[in-house]
Amino acid sequence: MRDVARLAGVGIKTVSRVVNGEPNVSPTTTEKVRAAAAQLSYEPDLHAGNLRRSGGRTQTLGLLVSSVANPFAGQVHRAIERVATAHGYAVLAASLEDDPAAELRAVSALARRRVDGFIVTPVRDDQSYLQVHADRGSPVVSVDREPTGVETDSVVTSNHDGARGGVRHLVDHGHRRIAFLGDLERIQTARLRREGYFHGMADADLEVDPDLVVMGLHDDASATAVVARLIAQADPPTAILSGQNLLTIGAIRALQQAGRSRDVALVGFDDVEAADLVEPRVTTIAQDPDRIGRLAAERMFARLDGDTSPPRQLVVPTRLVVRGSGEIPGPGVPPTA
User: Fold this and answer.
1) What is the pTM of this model?
2) Residue 250 phi, psi (nearest 5)
3) How far is it, in rounded angstroms, from Cα 9 to Cα 51?
4) Fewest CB within a 10 Å sphere: which of 103, 104, 230, 293?
């Protein structure tokens, strides 16, 4: 606060009034203080210093997850919290709803609470703004998606290889017209899974029909509408690779409504909670959110404990869980006994 006051040419009390939104400060002075604060990347300390623990630590972590609507994010959160609790830490979490603007707001809000470190699911195209927090001694670990513009530890899924293997599985069961359902284009994991789909098709010397590749889906309702349209066309897909669990739910609903659940094969990326409760049971490319969250938290505490080694990327492999929907045979292939 003293640095801001010096740069703005005002007293510390004036800075305090501006920060706390108090009256009786002229617009010109307010603007000078805000400009100085922005230049210095100043964040007010909501703990007011005296609430800090020994060693300057607050025993809190800031966690930014993509969206609490997605069960995957909830499982990652739970795993991180378990590790944090074992270290005597509390986790302050924010759901970004995959909104790039929300990422900046959430990090700023957590910084004002002086969290000791940040575990971030990147949503924006650029995370270079996090460097100032790392330089201040607050470690940053990226989870689920790789950051851009800043070097941090990261824990991710083998998105590309998982999707590629899903295509190979469908091809092995006789499918040639395979549709792909993808999340929002700006989401890194959605792009990686689409690339895996493309490479899987190329591995089998299959031409991709652009009409069967649909991106920009973000919930089950949108996936239901798209799958209903795809399977109603003159030359429909015989199989579907779904790029995330909410889209898989939408695909299941569309196939059930059309009475096509046992005709069109389905493989979904990421496991679905009720995958073994529907008929046919759903074949999935399962991630390991518990391990992802645990590894991210362990990297965070290693950094807090003084680990200064170069940033590391940990890739958690997927596994194909065979349940039935992905084994529906393609045209001309006899069903297995």
Assistant:
1) 0.79
2) -65, -40
3) 29
4) 104
What is the token pair recorded at 44?
Answer: 């007010």
Identify whether 334 is part of a domain: no
256/284 same-domain check: yes
Which residue reads 């979904």 in tokens? 268
Judgement on whether residues 237 and 311 belong to the same structural domain of the protein: no
| Domain shared by 217 and 183, yes or no | yes
Q: pLDDT tens for residues 119-140? A: 999 999 999 999 999 998 999 9
Alpha-carbon dihedral 163, 169, 172, 173, rounded to 10 degrees: -120
Tokens 């002075």 sit at which residue?
A: 29
Q: CA dihedral in degrees (67, 106, 103, 215; nearest 10)?
A: 20
CATH (domain of 262) = 3.40.50.2300
pLDDT tens digit sequence for 162-181: 999 999 999 999 999 999 99
Domain that holds residue 149: 54-157+290-316
Question: Is 332 a domain residue?
Answer: no
Cβ–Cβ < 8 Å for 37, 111: no
Question: Do 122 and 152 sit in the same domain of this protein?
Answer: yes
Q: Are 221 and 249 in contact (CB under 8 A)?
A: no
Helix (H) or strand (E) holding 142: strand 140-143
At 50, list the tokens.
């005296």
